[in-house]
Amino acid sequence: MIESDVDLSARNTLRLTARASRYVAVHDPAELSGLCADPELAALPWHVLGGGSNLVLPDVVDGLTLQVEIKGRRLVGEDEHAVYVAAGGGEPWHDFVMWTLAQGWGGLENLALIPGCVGAAPVQNIGAYGVEVKDTLFELSAYRLDGGAKRVFSSADCRFAYRDSVFKQEEAGRWLIAEVVFRLPKRPDLHTNYGDIDAELVNAGLPRTPAGVAQAVINVRQRKLPDPAVIGNAGSFFKNPVVPAAQRDALVAQHPQLVSYLMPGEHYKLAAGWLIEQAGWKGRRLGPVGMYEKQALVLVNHGGAQRADVAALTAAVQADVMARFGVQIEPEPVWW
């Protein structure tokens, strides 16, 4: 059923004040065919909404907003080395991760407690603690918004990069991701040397198993990051910038405490949160928005914020980081 003038404030984790001109919940990909066949709807711009966790909404979303409510999770196959597990695009991401662990399947444990839905995870190539979705994604099924045709994308087809994919580039806004299949290894391949995970395993007395790593990740995230149900936020708001080795070395000479990670091709990833904190923005507000007091990388809505407030703070933080370090930082969320 198509609804008009729908409040989206509770449907985006930043809790921005926003409304959808037209809105429909999609529970089955087959429903797209009927929507596409309606000439009035087909003439409108379409927007696909999952959990709204990596999104900056305008005050009014013109056109048709499609809320993905496609659910389901299942084992679709296995081989000598891995199991293949599928989840509907509308499945809550964290619930899916915990379900795989409950079945004894590791591989997604570092990505526990990330908000949002399964269908949105490949768009952003979500990542945390040294692991990204691309590491386990096998393929996904998506439907064209202009006609409803189905296509299966392999991992290579998705053209994953750091917080990026083909769905944020030339295919942006063209697809509804209905199901994602993950290849999860039968033998655990734990990644614990990124951030505080090793220390948390020891301090909390957790086992070095996929489930133990997931609990360590949950503990660390809950200490550092605000709960979107309590205070509006979109998680890590800025990407960690990647710079050439020469630029990183020059920065270290001036700022010995600079946090950086070696990348392929003689480049370094810099910790955006550290840069933002050193630029004086940790816990600082600009109107109804600000950078979180416990983690400078997280932009929070203290209440009643709109897109213009987020844009103003984004520009102010970028300008101060550039002035101090000569480094350009870019926001992670998609801006409708």
How would you sum up this structure, described in words?
This protein has 336 residues and is of the alpha+beta class. The chain has 3 domains: 3-68, Uridine Diphospho-n-acetylenolpyruvylglucosamine Reductase, domain 2, CATH 3.30.43; 73-185, Uridine Diphospho-n-acetylenolpyruvylglucosamine Reductase, domain 3 (2-Layer Sandwich), CATH 3.30.465; 232-335, Uridine Diphospho-n-acetylenolpyruvylglucosamine Reductase, domain 1 (Alpha-Beta Complex). 25% of the residues lie in helices and 29% in strands. The chain is built from 9 helices and 20 strands. The strands form 6 sheets. Strands 6-7-12-10-11 form a 5-stranded antiparallel beta sheet, with no helix packed on it. The chain has a 4-stranded mixed beta sheet with strand order 1-2-5-3, with no helix packed on it. A 4-stranded antiparallel beta sheet has the order 13-19-18-17, covered by helices on one side. Strand 17 (285-286) and strand 18 form a beta hairpin. Helix 5 (197-203) packs across helix 6. 43% of the residues are buried. The mean pLDDT is 96.
